[in-house]
Design goal:
This protein is mainly α. It is 53% helix and 0% strand.
């Protein structure tokens, strides 16, 4: 039997898609933040969500 090939499965995969409608300025703002943080746009948005959650807990 041959060994399994491919990437190992992630512990917490992102399986849910979310489509957003943004203005051109909103998209540019997200991209600018992502570039400065050296993160992907997804990771930048996730970081923003975490900041909002921490503010709500206060």
């Amino acid at each position: 039997m041959s060994p399994r090939t491919g990437r190992p499965p992630k512990a917490n995969p992102r399986k849910i898609n979310l489509n957003l409608r943004l203005t051109e300025q909103e998209a540019q703002d997200i991209q600018e933040c992502a570039d400065k943080l050296k993160l992907s746009r997804t990771d930048t948005i996730m970081k923003g969500i975490q900041l909002v959650k921490s503010e709500l807990k206060k």
